[in-house]
Amino acid sequence: MAVEKEKKVTSPSGGLSALWKKEDYWAVWLGLGMVLITILLWASGSSFMKAIAIKVPTWSEFGTATEYLGNNVPGIIGLFLGFLLLFSIAIKILGHNVSKFVVGFAALFIFSLFVTVMGSWTVAKSFNLEAPLLALAFGLIIGNFVKIPAWLDASLKTEFFVKTGIVLMGATLPFTLIMKAGPVAFLQATIISITTFATIYFAGTRLFGLDRRFASTLAAGGSICGVSASIAIGGAVKADKNYVSVAISLVVVWAVVMIFSLPILIKVFGIDAGPAGAWIGTSEFADAAGMAAAAAIGEQSIKTFTLVKVVGRDMFVGIWAFLMAIISVTQWEKRVDGSKPNAGEIWGRFPKFVLGFFVASIIVTILVASNGDAAQADIDSVVIKPLKELRNWAFIFTFLSIGFTTRFKDLTSVGWKPFAAFTTGVLVNVPLGFLLSVIVMGNYWANV
What we know:
Number of domains: 1
Number of helices: 24
Shape: globular
Mean pLDDT: 84
Strand content: under 5%
Distance between the termini: 26 Å
Membrane topology: Multi-pass membrane protein
Radius of gyration: 21 Å
Pfam families: Cons_hypoth698
Structural class: mainly alpha
Low-confidence stretches: 1-13
Subcellular location: Cell membrane
Organism: Desulfitobacterium dichloroeliminans (strain LMG P-21439 / DCA1)
Family: Belongs to the UPF0324 family.
């Protein structure tokens, strides 16, 4: 999820230049690059990645945290410089101001270190305030009471951080698990996506009289993958720029609500981590926000959330974009200008970071399968666990960026009709997700 506004892309594919001129591709290159570097270092006998994959231990006395930080100064510096170098390369080639990004990212990293320490506090953990949730809360407080300077704003690349984190997540999920659970996740996601899309679209057009392009943009944000889907579908149907902005705002509003409410409901109902993650995967509207909620439950919840949301629902964005482009051109656009829906729209709108997720999973799966049992523990310790921590850091950057760029006063100006249409989808989506994840498929998700 991101609050930053992305420019519409008029060309569906962009040719070969898209491989280094689009954020989606760079998220794949950076994520897979970190995976390959970690494997190569492990193969050479180096534990460098393990040293920089900082994880503050749980503490009840602040001295425990400060002692850990003091003993790991080289690792902290290495972690910062590693992320800074990789992100700066991408930022430069994507055409952004590198100098401002470097200064801003230094501050963002310090904030991330702070919330990581505080999220490891036993008191915070007792309230389910893991580092991701704490990062979001911290960002929201600062962002709504302090004017964010331009140099810090230049580093808040929400979509970029979350996409990179999702690619890294693939390395922590064996491909055999995806192949086993993927069809079930896709089936559940299909039911959720179609039902929620139809609900928001028909509520918007029939009950509240919204423009069809507006309703379809709202429906995409609520049923597929939040901000990215709103932008993709909005572009596919040539929606007004303000329609996309309103859809993004509503995704932010409800994603933030779900981040805090779903873990509370899960705890009240005593739902196991597996079904809980699947429910979050069907009920959240954005990857970053869902990951924050899932992280508050546990690692098993992260796995099932990823299978339902990333493997299942996110896969729909390219398909929906193509289908809605056909409907828009053939049914909605009254002016005949000779334009035809292009099959390349599917590839142009497809979230490339999802492919990176699969490739990362396949690489690590092959690595594990090609080494004997004696090497399994070493691979887990020096490859998979460090990648998991790098993933967590990428998500903390994401959650802070969301908080810093979200303005409550802006979110109250979207009007009641689009809010009502979107909320109608929420009222269908959440109970249906509970029914499928906990009642119908609860045993399955509990044993994934």
